[in-house]
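Appendix B. Extra example for self-study. Work through it before the problem class; the solution is given directly after the inputs so you can check yourself.
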Amino acid sequence: MLASFRSLTQAAPRFPHPRFLAQPAIQRDSRFKQISAADVQAFRQILGDAAVITNADDLTAFNVDWMNRYRGASTIALKPTSTDHVSQIMQYCNHRLLAVVPQGGNTGLVGGSVPVFDELILSLSAMNQIEHLDETSGVVTTQAGVVLEALDNYVGAAGYRVPLDLGAKGSCQIGGNVATNAGGSRFVRYGPLRASVVGMEAVLPDGRVFDAMTTVRKDNTGYDLKQLMIGAEGTLGVITRLAIACPMKSSCVDTMVVHVTSSERISPLLRLARQSLGEVLSAIEYMDSSSVRMADTNLSHVSDPLSIPDDPQHSLVLIECAGSNAEHNREKLEAFLEAAFEQELVADGVIAESETQSNELWELRESLPEAVLKAGAAATLKYDVSVPIAHFNEMIDVAKERVKDLGAVQVCGWGHIGDENLHLNVAIQDDTQKDTAQLRLEPWVYEYVSGVGGSISAEHGLGVMKAGAIGYSKGDIAVDVMRTIKDVLDVNGICNPYKVLTTSSQ
Amino acid sequence: MLASFRSLTQAAPRFPHPRFLAQPAIQRDSRFKQISAADVQAFRQILGDAAVITNADDLTAFNVDWMNRYRGASTIALKPTSTDHVSQIMQYCNHRLLAVVPQGGNTGLVGGSVPVFDELILSLSAMNQIEHLDETSGVVTTQAGVVLEALDNYVGAAGYRVPLDLGAKGSCQIGGNVATNAGGSRFVRYGPLRASVVGMEAVLPDGRVFDAMTTVRKDNTGYDLKQLMIGAEGTLGVITRLAIACPMKSSCVDTMVVHVTSSERISPLLRLARQSLGEVLSAIEYMDSSSVRMADTNLSHVSDPLSIPDDPQHSLVLIECAGSNAEHNREKLEAFLEAAFEQELVADGVIAESETQSNELWELRESLPEAVLKAGAAATLKYDVSVPIAHFNEMIDVAKERVKDLGAVQVCGWGHIGDENLHLNVAIQDDTQKDTAQLRLEPWVYEYVSGVGGSISAEHGLGVMKAGAIGYSKGDIAVDVMRTIKDVLDVNGICNPYKVLTTSSQ
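Solution. Structure tokens for the complete assembly:
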């Protein structure tokens, strides 16, 4: 097993200047002006005083990401309430050469939503109106600053659900979700978020309002430009409004957690789940024994329901079935479990008998990021990658091996099996070991992923963290074309600079 | 009901120069060179003699679309077998200023895949190798010229299905499907084709090979440029290879056709189907009484299984359920039918008891385009639009009203109810009435669709037919951005000119 990665680490790194390491060597782009008193006054005239934040204390929450890993030094945050506001702001900033970072719920993990230097912060949080749900088509129109959970509750009242769910749902915003093409645990059922975005309004870097706010599911009239905005992480403009096609909510949901005793059984388990659960399979999530132990140890409100051993081969898999007929769901689930036991794919399992129990099982899965944060107070290195499932365990094992002599460093992994998406996490308790741990893991992680044809960012995006590492997942020509498009749509480069693509001027 | 469209027709047309009318007033772009003997020789050196077609008889099939509505005058068609071939061809053409039209199965309905003048035809039909199916992830990699049905059969043998199905499956090619973001009857279950394309290789207009051939489902590393190519109808480059995520094939499929006696019952029927069939609903297709009658009358191999009356309020709806458990499917289907009868949403129905019967029901739906062609030998006007379901019947009624005094003109409609996608068809038997019929219907169709927030091309694309009408579905700024991107990626404008976007130089 180990041979395959060893040859990778011996290979010359494809990326000669690893600027994604501990302190990215990014220089402030000198083309950008600093915010002046006259600028502040201009913004107050556009937005009113209350929506212009310049107080240092108030600005802290906007300048720092929730992992406390990236910290900007912006002197101003704006909270527009309308598309027209955003348009005026962008027009002004483009004219005055002020760099702008759009910010949603600020729950990203790659430093994409906070300033790197003194970029103006454009917070969408006051654009939080849900406009309309078409109860026949299930298409909801909304402003971009609406919190995901609020949107899900809103459409839920009419029998629909947002085709996206993730741990940060209580604070992330739908505009940010779309700007980063968020993945999450419903991906396996509903596909990528970009597939459900049927309409979009966005403000381009020069202030022009790009209006593609259709609410029909099929529209093949020209290039689907909103797809460019989806996943551009705010570097091509600011998403202000959205129309999202929502599927009907299933009337019956079953949740179970099973204990898998060998990493080699994960792939056949997935295949069996797809076969026997078929159309009711709505989530299949992986948690290795280390992450389960970290949650069990560090968090009082969750526990391992199956008390799995502390052994890297062992893991828990959470499976959710959602359908329109409770009996059918249960029959499929039982047939699946029976076959899984018969084929010795699972050793034990627990099925939630109530919504409360179901929530408890999900709570374990969703608390893992928090558990890791608590396990490593000094720093957490997070890698969100796509690799074939067969490589999940190998990656975790090798990562452990690489940092094991550093003492209090805990490595664990979890992810979305159906999407081949692994979240590799490294919790470091001693701050002085952070850089060493990172040097041991990077560029190894990126080389490994690239070597097996995966993606170095499955669902978190590139942000500032991985902007310099794009070459591990995208070829030179693709990057050139991206840069061409960025340059032609954001002529002055003011829109979320230093993110996604590094530029030659930096 | 009629009031709403009347006000629309009175409004000033948004598009002042309707170049989509009978004979589009397109001028050949004088920048493009004509094919010389030296060019032919150069292509022979790249491809070998057999792959360079210059014989007038052989060229006919490449120059004319299958509706016999659009006819180019190209003097050369090339059949490359590798990406390298395509790259060399495009580099040569870009250098020599030769315009190129990429062509797949040539089954499009908007004239997108045939030359308008003497563009070189680049046929992908010899790039027809299926490369690999990953049996764990269900991702298939393939060359672009593979016929859809062949691809479906290939993955079908391993228990998967291509998430796309349409009437032309026996001849359309997957590259063309992706280039036009084809819709079809599986859209309601699997969403847009673009959601399932995980990897792409394409040759840019200047010959550079854009390699994004990943096979992982999640990849958020920079702008998703392949999304730009999807639906660009070959105007931004030539798709050469693809990786497509396939869902597992359902082990049990039930097909039924029901008789709906009033157009107002279609929306509640769809809602009921979504609720009671839930996750097993895999197609829900509409056929108005006129289209059913046309098929029944003009085609010997299909018939109306429920003998519905010749009344515009009446229609047939085909419903397919696909799942992993035959009993569950059937129970859901029966519960649905019971409720549908109880709520008086359907008057009659027939359920296929065998695969043969199921094929017969589908055959009726898929033969409608052919039936219309036979009904109107002189010409058929086809409008593929997205509008809320409530407008389906109104559009058909008004269209009938507008052309009823023209004699032998038959109007009918069918479509994908779950996607709000209506195919309005007008069969004209007398060639001299064609232009009059078209003038009565255009720009009315486009104005109507625009007025209700729909799309003037739901799944067929713009091609040459609707290039000038883009303004009905897209705003000026969106069109400007499209043009900006086209100009920067295809500097010489050689890639499928006169399609999708008209240019100022024309």
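Self-check: The domain at 376-460 of chain A is CATH 3.30.70.2740 (Alpha-Beta Plaits). If your reasoning did not lead you there, revisit section 3.
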